[in-house]
């Protein structure tokens, strides 16, 4: 399995997994991707370890058949809704005699930033540097190679409840997979669907899942705001089930097959009857116009709540564009146009630019793979060179995972890779 990197996204309604490797040109290639239903997770928290483990196992088995290789290790995305961010500053003295800042100094200052009082039921799972400060000069993105006496970092510390993380890893282990590390979900999505220009001028990353809607705002290449709504795509199926007196399973089928959104100033369109089989083989007729009204009302409510949160926290003006990822809402016809209308901002569906993985539902799994490979967390260049006799890959990462030995890899010398997420590896 050294040839592949596997990323797993455990959601409230499904488990997605992606496998990637480097091609002969040193570029990332997604060789397999799949998803299976899973109902063992609610709002990012594992509520049924057995059910979650079965979903993960089924997903991995499908992926193994796609890539024709046995999978024993994977990297996991950590949902944003179970994490919280807190700001802290780390300060160290430059250790070298010539006062040149080296990787070891950056490692020490990041560890110093993690020295913070936290509740006994929580633990630090990662740190995201915002800026480095050398002898009082701030807004430094890459301090390595500079001269100075004092190195500081302003960082966001990622905290999570210990029991929640433990249950996630128990589910992974029960599925027969060793968790090699983890990636913060908003950063994985950003890796997969946002470009450098969007990260700089301001972007709202809207991850609408089954049970939750995660709101993340990036500006100036920094994560400046994170929030969550306890409502997602599953609420639409519930609305259809209640309003039309249908079983929830049939409501979900209707949502997927006929779902669309009424866009403002758009013609009402064709109205017709939909015949479906309800309980006890009873045939029920559903008005199409009523169905899309139900779907539109719920999606509009979600988007209005997002706008309200951004306005209250004074983040709406910092957003220049909106990227929607996640489950079925991002793929629902008319939802992006409705988002543009409500937010009064440009919007698009976030799709990874890889063959076979160009869907918003795969953004997190693909982002995990991309982050791990780009950050140098694993070294795939040796096996790639043996197969293709190509030069060693020199690709650089916008976000970087951290384990107990930060900056231990030799290919971590990209400017962006020094300033992004460094995640703690428990293993």
UniProtKB/TrEMBL annotation:
- Any single biological process term in GO: FtsZ-dependent cytokinesis
Q: Which SUPFAM superfamilies match?
A: Actin-like ATPase domain
Ranked from the top, the taxonomy reads: Bacteria, Bacillati, Bacillota, Clostridia, Eubacteriales
Give the protein's recorded name.
Cell division protein FtsA
SMART domains noted in UniProt: FtsA
Q: What does the record note on quaternary structure?
A: Self-interacts. Interacts with FtsZ.
Record gene name: ftsA_2
Q: List the Gene3D superfamilies.
A: 3.30.1490.110, 3.30.420.40
Q: Which residues form the SHS2 domain?
A: 5-193
Q: Read off the CDD domains from this record.
A: ASKHA_NBD_FtsA
A Pfam family per the record: FtsA
Q: Does the keyword Iron-sulfur apply?
A: no
Say yes or no: keyword Coiled coil present: no
Q: Could you list this entry's UniProt keywords, alphabetically sorted.
A: Cell cycle, Cell division, Cell membrane, Membrane
Q: Which GO terms describe its cellular component?
A: cell division site; cytoplasmic side of plasma membrane
- Organism, as annotated: Clostridium liquoris
Q: Where is this region: Disordered?
A: 383-404
Localization recorded for this chain is: Cell membrane
Q: Which purpose does this protein serve, as stated in its record? A: Cell division protein that is involved in the assembly of the Z ring. May serve as a membrane anchor for the Z ring.
Q: Which family does it belong to?
A: Belongs to the FtsA/MreB family.
Superkingdom of origin: Bacteria
